[in-house]
Design goal:
The chain is mostly helical. 95% of the residues lie in helices and 0% in strands. The longest helix has 52 residues.
């Protein structure tokens, strides 16, 4: 149990250090740099996931249509060989 506590303490310590570093970095930024960072963060949090979801959605549609077309062509060829 002590190893688990030590690991959790290290994780919390690393998170605190990262948070302090981020706060100091934001404190040193000029207003235009802060605006740019906010825009990049907004892009990462909103537009990028939307693009990934749309990509996955259209890829699934493409695979479904492709499977339907291939299945139809196989059935057509099979019927040509039978006749």
């Amino acid at each position: 149990m002590s190893k688990l506590n030590t690991l959790i303490d290290e994780i919390i310590h690393a998170f605190k250090q990262t948070l302090r570093y981020g706060v100091r970095l934001i404190d040193r930024m000029s207003p235009p740099a802060l605006l740019g960072a906010a825009l990049v963060l907004a892009f990462i949090c909103s537009i990028l996931p939307l693009a990934l979801v749309l990509f996955a959605f259209f890829m699934l549609i493409k695979l479904a249509v492709g499977a339907t077309v291939i299945c139809g062509r196989r059935n057509q060829r099979h019927q040509e060989h039978v006749e």
